[in-house]
Automatic annotation (TrEMBL):
Oxidoreductase in keyword set: yes
Catalysed reaction, written as an equation: N(6)-[(R)-lipoyl]-L-lysyl-[glycine-cleavage complex H protein] + glycine + H(+) = N(6)-[(R)-S(8)-aminomethyldihydrolipoyl]-L-lysyl-[glycine-cleavage complex H protein] + CO2
Name of protein: Glycine dehydrogenase (decarboxylating)
Organism: Patiriisocius marinistellae
Gene: gcvP
Lineage, broadest ranks: Bacteria, Pseudomonadati, Bacteroidota, Flavobacteriia, Flavobacteriales
Assembly and interaction partners: The glycine cleavage system is composed of four proteins: P, T, L and H.
UniProt-listed InterPro entries: GcvP (IPR003437), GDC-P_C (IPR049316), GDC-P_N (IPR049315), GDC_P (IPR020581), PyrdxlP-dep_Trfase (IPR015424), PyrdxlP-dep_Trfase_major (IPR015421), PyrdxlP-dep_Trfase_small (IPR015422)
EC number: 1.4.4.2
Amino acid sequence: MNTDSFALRHIGPREADLKSMLKTVGAETMDQLIFETIPDDIRLEKSLRLDTAMSEQEYLEHITELSTKNQLFKSYIGLGYNQGILPPVIQRNILENPGWYTAYTPYQAEIAQGRLEALLNFQTMVTDLTGMELANASLLDESTAAAEAMALLFAVRERDQKKNGANKFFVSEEILPQTLSLLETRSTPIGIELVVGNHEDFDFSDGFFAIMLQYPGRSGKVHDFTDYVKKANDHQIKVAVAADILSLVMLEAPGTFGADVVVGTTQRFGIPLGYGGPHAAYFATKEAYKRSIPGRIIGVTKDTNGNRALRMALQTREQHIKRDKATSNICTAQVLLAVMAGMYSVYHGPEGLKYIANKVHNTAATLADSLEKLGYYQANETYFDTIAIKTDISKINFRAEAEGINFYYKDEETVSISINETTTINDINKIIGVFAEAASKERFYISELIKGNAIPKRVARKTEFLQNEVFNSYHSETELMRYIKKLERKDLALNHSMISLGSCTMKLNAAAEMLPLSDPMWGNIHPFAPIEQAGGYQFMLKKLEEQLTEITGFAGTSLQPNSGAQGEYAGLMVISAYHKSRGEEHRNICLIPSSAHGTNPASAVMAGMKVVVTKATEEGNIDVEDLRAKAEEHKDNLAALMVTYPSTHGVYESAIKEITSLIHENGGQVYMDGANMNAQVALTNPGAIGADVCHLNLHKTFAIPHGGGGPGVGPICVAEQLVPFLPTNPIIETGGELGITAISAAPWGSALACLISYAYICMLGEDGLKKSTQYAILNANYIKERLNGHFNVLYAGEKGRAAHEMIIDCRPFKENGIEVVDIAKRLMDYGFHAPTVSFPVAGTMMIEPTESESKQELDRFCDAMISIRKEIEKADKEDESNILKNAPHTQAMLTSDTWEFSYTRQQAAFPLEYVSENKFWPSVRRVDDAYGDRNLICTCAPIEEYMEA
Ligand SMILES: *Cc1c(COP(=O)(O)O)cnc(C)c1O
């Protein structure tokens, strides 16, 4: 046996388990199981063209070698990306800690209080710094957050009679170029007209519903918007502000001068540049818009005992659950990065942030002063961190390059220089050297910073921020390390037990895949650095695109989308561009089966399409006759079908090829939602089923950790005819020659996270990938057989097989007074995170074990489920205090002096033997969702409240 093989470490079941597992599922061989599972006409005959698998050691050597092809320049490019310092205590205890990075989205609040608190800190930090009432728990990047702000203000404009029908959105020319590109992408399909110009010339006329400003502007200037926003308000024009989070430490909060939405990135709060991401964007607004906020919001509520507990607020109203009524399709966001940025503020506190912001400002002022002494003209009268030197750039650029320095050259005579947290006096002296030489002047050296005063008095920050206890308590490393640990202990992640979340593919996130993310040779590259400086990245990204293109059976890939839902949107926009190029831009009907994930209809509406829902049969398959009828009815305007494969019901529908061809016959393109790609890799592919485009959730199938709800990477892979339309970037050349405008801020989206999927594919190779898919199917069918007779599995393929996941029906237990959530909560007492609850069918659970779980873990899970099934049997409908209804049971309950329940403490907390060896204690009792939604609190309590207590 080759113990160097990564597949051996990635896949859970041992060779020795295979026989008994196959026996349980009633198959002679793995091949037989696969033949009975995947329809004949879509099984791949040829093997994939992928390089031979590398061992972990070989991969790590390869990636270290490759990293040396990246050149670490000092970047003063700015434009929304500024290097910061990731405190090592956060790097080691969060970024490099599977207790944080392998956690799931905190739907099961009782075993997620740690990351919920960390996210509440993030929201508090954002509301404080922006001066707004509410913030969400992150968005994908600043530019998509800006587009979300535009969409929200458009959606709520009808509340204001005067603005009913207004469809113009004014954008200041000071906006970042990538944000403008995103606004273009997002505005047109939903009927918004963008008008870009100098904000001072804007006339506040009636056709406008809102405006967007950049603070400080792209040039670096700090505009005083106080009167301006007032005037906009007087004209009932809403105001969105994109603001630099660090600048807000010194600049007055946009909320204080009347902004309606404030967005930006928290990247510079310690998150590596990573050649574009992942980073957490923020989105803050007024309480009045709480029902329309995109993404997730964490809120305070209470548990059964009345103790404070956190959970995702307004959860059932999450945007994508509104389906085609949604104004946003955000699902996965950037939780891990939000946790880290929030922790950066916890560590530094208000005084630390003031120190950092002042240092940045003073450094910029010192540089401006020095360059003026050399005779240069600095054009920004006001600024926070960015100065603009007017000179012939051809005298500067090659000298800067020779010194390993990147500036941003806005035009032929403007050198824009953005200072960041890492900039030292040494760095300043280097820059002075470049400019001195260009001016043929004698260079000089500075040895200390002067005090800057380039912030207009009227906008200098007067309001306090981060006064809460949490931002004023953990400023030594020991204290922060323990605080992080305290939160981590409250959370169940993959380092404790299986998280069998159907549709989310919570597989192993191997350490070898993660290690390179900590390497500055990958971390410290600016996304707009000249492409020659990113040789390592360019090689890796191109290779990953090729690998994904091969795996999907398509012709091209774009890595730009930062989540599956963004991929859906990107794919549909590409389809629209294709139709338009053929003079068929009227094609706007999108067929979507009723079982689809809520992001599908939400994305279709954002792409300007009309959703027509098609029926499912009783067996859970697409009703082909209904689909045919609707495709034919709309044949003149059919744009696309969105189909998930295998279906969200966990079945490889055998009619899939018939389905895709009938869409083509009627002039449409087929979009395949690739969330279930883990059931396809190396056995079949989207090309083989006849699709034209798909997204892949690299954070599901390709091993990027879930991070508690992000980061995600959602590339789209497309057939030949769609390649020309792949998305572009306004600064760095990428995408197709007829490419659509940007889908994400960065040219290759979250490039740093792409390393993980690249590692995954390199180390598994074709053989390991195929095996992974086979074992994912085996593991699912093994659970199915073990639960047989205890739970009813709702759907199966023609030969009775599940795909890589299955749905079990929990609705019959209502007879015993038991709901599906009771089972989910009871699983916590057994040390397990619940599977997906009530998707795609209400009252059911969708179980997806993945290939990474061992037979022993699958058995423990099945034992737990069967034991719970027996408890359900015993549950008395009349008795509200049964063991399921009271779940989960906390340590405080167990150790309380009184015990008033009809079952024993042992039954409550240690129901099976394996539990006592590895007990996980939920930190709160069952949370009250409704109470929290009625009393919405989305920030930490102010310090006075702690003092009263
Ligand atoms: C996860 C998922 C999505 C959304 O993907 P994100 O990466 O969370 O945006 C879409 N469709 C299905 C079926 C999914 O499971």
